[in-house]
From TrEMBL:
Gene3D superfamilies: FAD/NAD(P)-binding domain
Entry-linked InterPro entries: Auxin_biosynth/cation_transpt, CHP04046_FMN-dependent, FAD/NAD-bd_sf
Pfam families, per database record: Pyr_redox_3
Keywords in alphabetical order: Oxidoreductase
Superkingdom of origin organism: Bacteria
Protein name: MSMEG_0569 family flavin-dependent oxidoreductase
Keyword rRNA-binding: no
Tagged with keyword GTP-binding: no
């Protein structure tokens, strides 16, 4: 590894590799620095039974679309890692593992990357580390009895790592709902604090809902054209699963099977976790979102004159008889916190962030010249933080990098006084 490069990419996941492939096609010299190892988050921050929630055909890394024999299936965790490994090998990515970038500073000729292997100079830098940086724990986690084992969703592997007894999962977005299902299928008695996360059906009228939405142009909608604008970046993901070939996650069905549901977590008092009286509203809201998506598919089918099997409207399988106001911790042996992550770009010393510390950019091109961001949710489209769309963003940023390099290489114009 040298100590000066035209471009340095920070992050060795699918975003960093997609950026590397794009620069390789343009013969732009660069390296990829990964703090741990290739695809580390997929290896170590996913549970044993984890699988994609989007079908395999949406794996569209540039130059390397899905190469398996089950395009409408859902890759398991180890298969995802293997896919990323094959991608890196396919173009001999200039990847350096085990190099921690501790700080990035800017200077007149670009940037200095202060790493665990020394200082590296770069004319341009791509930050491809996503926005899930530090596991989030609520303040009340420190108040709970020490006998209760507490893990973040990023640390959860399987029911076997948790002590015998009831398990509480806090958070019902993608990870929380799927982990609650994983524990439930393992025979554990599960308690789940349900938030306002929406849900989506896996299949509708004969096809995966993702297939319908792709035909409808949903995944080509840009953040500039989204009704919520940049607020779309803060939306909670719909919960659904690709497990066992894919199916809905219906929390009402889990309740019929013995899972105990509560509203949002509010606080801790006298050995109990207090919960809000919004369980009914949250379940109804999730169902309403699913219905809205189905209605849009119905309208598309009619508009296009398509033939598709009819499907009866969803009928709620279960309604709470009352809304429990607290979780009694007497029988709870473990808690899985599925409440998200903190985003932390404080190690980048450049005027490239808004008042909340989030990157200010246009399609990944930072307001700070020579600095770029890739792999963030809704960086440009729904797929920007996923296999589906990160490649298009990388190709776009590669063009900007090439243009910036050409501009920096141009000799400064000489001023000529026309009066002479």
């Amino acid at each position: 590894m040298n100590h000066h490069y035209p471009v340095v990419i920070i992050g060795g996941g699918q975003a960093g590799l997609a950026m590397s492939w794009s620069l390789t096609q343009k013969n732009i010299r660069h390296i990829v620095l990964e703090r741990h190892q290739l695809a580390w988050a997929w290896r170590h921050q996913r549970w044993d039974n984890f699988c994609l929630v989007t079908p395999n055909w949406q794996c569209k890394l540039p130059g390397f679309p899905y190469d398996g024999d089950d395009p409408h299936g859902f890759m398991l965790r180890d298969d995802i890692v293997a896919y990323i490994e094959r991608y890196a090998q396919s173009f001999n990515a200039p990847l350096y593992e085990g190099v921690n970038v501790e700080r990035v500073t800017q200077h007149a000729d670009g940037f200095a990357l202060h790493t665990s292997m020394g200082t590296i100079q770069a004319e341009q830098v791509v930050i491809a580390v996503g926005n899930y940086h530090r596991p989030r724990f609520p303040d009340i986690a420190q108040q709970l009895p020490q006998r209760i084992v507490q893990v973040h969703s990023a640390e959860y592997k399987s029911s076997q790592q948790l002590p015998k007894g009831d398990v509480l999962v806090v958070g019902s977005a993608q990870s929380g709902a799927q982990i609650a299902e994983d524990l439930h299928l393992a025979g554990r008695r599960v308690h789940l604090c349900v938030g306002s996360a929406p849900r989506v059906a896996r299949f509708y009228r004969g096809r995966d809902v993702v297939d319908w939405l792709d035909d409808m142009g949903h995944y080509r909608l840009t953040v500039d054209n989204h009704p919520l604008g940049e607020d779309a970046r803060r939306k909670t993901n719909h919960y659904v699963t690709g497990r066992d070939g894919g199916r809905d996650i219906d929390l009402r069905a889990f309740a019929l099977q013995g899972m105990q549901l509560y509203g949002r977590l509010l606080g801790y008092q006298d050995g109990k976790l207090l919960t809000a009286d919004d369980l009914i509203a949250n379940l109804d809201g999730a169902d309403a979102t699913s219905k809205k998506i189905k209605d849009s598919i119905d309208a598309w089918i009619e508009q296009q004159g398509l033939q598709a099997p009819e499907e009866q409207p969803y009928q709620p399988l279960w309604q709470p008889e009352h809304q429990p106001g607290a979780v009694d911790l007497a029988n709870i042996s473990a808690i899985v916190w599925a409440v998200g992550f903190h985003t932390d770009f404080s190690w980048i010393e450049a005027p490239a962030f808004n008042e909340k510390g989030y990157p200010s950019h246009t399609r990944g091109v930072s307001v700070q010249s020579g600095l770029y961001f890739l792999g963030l949710p809704w960086l440009w489209t729904w797929g920007s933080g996923r296999f589906e769309g990160v490649g298009e963003d990388a190709l776009w940023i590669a063009k900007s990098i090439e243009q910036h390099a050409r501009k920096m290489a141009e000799p400064e114009a000489t001023y000529v006084d026309s009066r002479r």
